[in-house]
Design goal:
- The chain is an alpha/beta fold.
- 40% of the residues lie in helices and 23% in strands.
- The protein has 14 helices and 17 strands.
- The strands form four sheets. Strands 2-1-3-8-7-6 form a six-stranded mixed beta sheet, sandwiched between helices. A five-stranded mixed beta sheet has the order 14-13-15-16-17, sandwiched between helices. A four-stranded antiparallel beta sheet has the order 10-11-9-12.
- The radius of gyration is 28 Å and the shape is elongated.
């Protein structure tokens, strides 16, 4: 089944609202054994009609999100009627639902809201329990111009998601009749470059029949996506695991920080952090994870040398002799955080984010990371990430979290 998605809304293209529908619909359709063949985002207005006219020519199903409101720029219904040759009429049941929505809230319905009850003749009205805009399903059999079914869905996620489960999913299941045995297996890696990663395993993965392979690279992170039957996916997983087991974060799609928090909790360990060049980014990422208060005790942002001495007990002589960006200072920062916090494990980082401040011996992008554990030797590593300032901070925080992950075991 060829399915295309059209997301409408000028705010999505202006960047004021993030478009989350594409990823969500992709996951839900894959769960049903279906795939999105193409997806576009268009502004409000005439562009909706032209996008829909193009999609229906090659699709079995088109899903349109947004443009079902009462204002003048909400023209998805009108566009659908023109593209399919259907007449718009006011649906009495839809109008009663809209009126009831306002009555329950003790509000007066504005006359413009009647527009939301207009549907193409013969279309199914999809009840929206969370808003005033009902969804619409135009079956292929009543599409006068193209044999393509069309779903018109409201834009707000709190309305779209329940409507999809209640009204769209049952219809898609009946239309597709798909009994898919495909699965998707995702593996998340850090500390290895995308080019090195795929060059090492692509040839082997290509020998597995029926296996679809995809990569998604971010700063200091690579996701491997395997799609196929279970046997093919597990063969692909074994190849990737054998080559890059030490770089594997998880196979459940969780972020690195969520993985670290989970490993700390399952190991009954607590964490403290001492940050310089990352300015608290590592602590921020850890505390973004729900339940991090169970394992994260405290963080120290000691940007200046005086703060490192005063707050963490770094030896002034170490700073004078080795410099703030050094293995010795990173070690003393981690040990100081461990002792002062009483945590089971403490990590530190000190580096040169740039664009200035580097030297031939310590170029911009250099950072030292230390992990100190109770009754264990302190582990110190050096990384080199010559990026812009924000990119460096993200990559350095990623490396520090990975060192914590490795230290937990």
């Amino acid at each position: 089944m060829h399915i295309e998605v059209i997301n409408t809304g000028s705010e999505l293209l202006l960047g004021t609202t993030q478009n989350t529908h594409g990823g969500w619909l992709g996951r839900e359709l894959f769960r049903l054994g279906l795939r999105i063949a193409r997806q576009v985002t268009v502004p409000d207005g005439e562009a909706i009609e032209s996008a829909l006219a193009e999609s229906v020519k090659r699709s079995d199903i088109v899903i349109v999100t947004g443009g079902l409101g009462p204002t003048s720029d909400d023209v998805t219904r009108e566009a659908c009627a023109k593209v399919t040759g259907a007449e718009l009429i006011e649906d009495e049941a839809a109008l009663r639902c809209i009126e009831q929505f306002f009555a329950i809230r003790n509000k007066i319905m504005a006359p413009d809201n009647r527009k939301q009850a207009e549907v193409p003749v013969g279309a199914d009205v999809l009840t929206n329990k969370n808003g005033t805009a009902p969804g619409i399903y135009l079956p292929a059999r009543i599409n006068q111009l193209h044999p393509c079914g069309i779903f018109l869905l409201p834009g707000p996620p709190r309305e779209l998601y329940p409507l999809f489960f209640d009204e769209v999913e049952p219809r898609l299941r009946a239309l597709a009749g798909v009994q898919s045995n495909q699965i998707m297996h995702e593996m998340k890696f850090t500390g290895v470059g995308e080019s090195d990663f795929h060059q090492a395993i692509d040839a082997q993965l290509a020998t597995i029949p029926g296996l679809e392979v995809g990569y998604c690279a971010r700063i200091a992170e690579v996701d491997l996506r395997l799609i196929g039957d279970e046997e093919a996916c597990m063969k692909g997983r074994a190849i990737a695991f054998e080559a890059f087991a030490e770089y594997l974060i998880n196979e459940n799609g969780a972020s690195l920080e969520a993985t670290v928090v989970d490993k700390l909790r399952s190991s009954n360990l607590t964490l403290a952090l001492a940050e310089s060049c990352t300015g608290g980014l590592i602590s921020s990422r850890i505390t973004d994870v729900p339940g991090s208060s169970d394992v994260f005790m405290e963080g120290y942002i000691t940007y200046a040398n005086e703060a490192k001495i005063r707050t963490l007990g770094v030896n002034p002589e170490s700073l004078e002799k080795f410099g703030a960006v050094s293995a010795e200072v990173a070690r003393e920062m981690a040990v100081g955080a461990l002792q002062r916090s009483g945590a089971d494990l403490a990590a530190s980082i000190t580096g040169i984010a740039g664009p200035g401040g580097g030297s031939p011996e310590k170029p911009v992008g250099t950072a030292w990371i230390a992990v100190a554990c109770k009754n264990q030797p302190t582990i110190v590593t050096c990384i080199f990430q010559p990026r812009d300032r924000n990119g460096f901070k993200k990559a350095a925080s990623q490396a520090a979290l990975d060192q914590i992950r490795r230290a937990i075991g």
